[in-house]
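U., I forgot to send this yesterday:
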Amino acid sequence: MALPKLSQREKREALAKAQKMRRERSILRAQLKKGEIDFSRILEATDEVTARMRVAYLLRSLPRVGKVKAQRIMEEIGIDEARRVQGLGKRQKEALLARLGNRK
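Result:
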């Protein structure tokens, strides 16, 4: 499938949107790492920033969870490494909450 041809204005708008999303994700990850926001609240969120975040990226934002531990948790639960938060099923969310608790 070929990429659509975008005008310069459309390219600038897309770039600005991508930068905004990255900035908001960075803020969310920092809040999670500092304990200012609950992990369970993030899993329930329906906003575009949270929904499109990769689960592995989200797990690595938790205190004391690095790349290896996040990968192991995802393998145990049966979550693909490319899965995004919006693509998680009810059982997968429940398993994550049971495994990680109500972390702040």
